[in-house]
Write a structure and sequence with these properties.
alpha/beta, four-stranded parallel beta sheet
Length: 261
């Protein structure tokens, strides 16, 4: 059995796992949440690169045929499309492509961690495809801890979101990239604040379609299924499993475990 490996700093990447599992139900997945070292967004690129290598080495052990870096901060330091011959997928380029597809006024907003915003990775990805696109970025460092706590509908979270969203909305964006895999957990609250005229983009479904196409084309060998799903964390965290089950519902998880990295 070959797995598709996925990792994120915490619970947010489970939104990507859910999209992949829905699209590719016959495949088997291993998910690693690096809960002992989150958030990544406040770390330096060098530190994030170090974590990236360690997490990939862990996922390689059981045998993976594809790697999904379901973390925007880690994707911002990712280099190349392969890792030791294994196809590797970040979340930034797919999100940028989808935002360019749906924007009408050519003004895109990016919500991200400090590391993602300071890297300029989304600006580079967007302008590589459209040199004249206008981009307004907003760092949102408080959102990851709020999601990890499960405060997705708490009044405090709504107030924080309203403050963060003020800048891109006043700037006139018509499309917002949710540039952290934790943020789709808050998608309902964000949509209520920004209204129906703003497109909200996250990379989960785009990556799921990309992997499906690569499996169909033979770039990645498909499994016959039924697939299994294993979730590991680097720290025993009851909140992770509680919030994770809410995100993944009604998917069946075969194993929850503690990773030794």
């Amino acid at each position: 059995m070959s797995f598709i490996g996925i990792f994120d700093s915490g619970v947010g990447g489970l939104t990507v796992l859910k999209a992949l599992k829905k699209e590719l139900s016959h495949e088997s997945f291993i998910y690693l949440g690096d809960t002992a070292r989150l958030p990544y967004g406040s770390k330096s690129p060098r530190t994030i690169q170090h974590y990236l290598k360690q997490n990939i080495r862990f996922l390689e052990k059981p045998g993976v045929k594809a790697l999904v870096v379901a973390c925007n901060s880690a994707s911002s330091v990712l280099e190349g499309d392969f890792w030791d011959g294994i196809p590797i997928y970040g979340v930034i380029i797919p999100g940028a492509r989808e935002a360019l597809r749906v924007t009408k006024n050519r003004h895109i907003g990016v919500l991200g961690t400090r590391a993602t915003v300071e890297s300029g990775a989304y600006i580079a990805a967007l302008r590589e495809q459209d040199a004249h696109i206008k981009v307004t970025q907003q760092a949102c460092p408080l959102l990851v801890p709020l999601v990890e706590e499960g405060w997705t509908e708490d009044p405090v979270t709504i107030q924080v979101l309203e403050r963060y969203l003020r800048t891109p909305l006043h700037a006139g964006v018509d499309t917002l990239i949710l540039g952290c895999t934790h943020y789709p957990v808050l998608k309902k609250a964000i949509a209520t604040i920004v209204g129906p005229h703003i497109n909200l983009v996250d990379s989960a479904q785009v990556i799921a379609h990309q992997l499906r196409n690569d499996l169909l084309s033979g770039k990645i060998a498909p499994e016959l299924g039924p697939g299994t799903t294993h979730i590991w964390t680097t720290d025993a965290n009851h909140a992770f499993q509680e919030v994770g089950q809410q995100i993944l519902k009604p998917l069946h998880i075969d194993e929850w475990g503690l990773a030794d990295i």
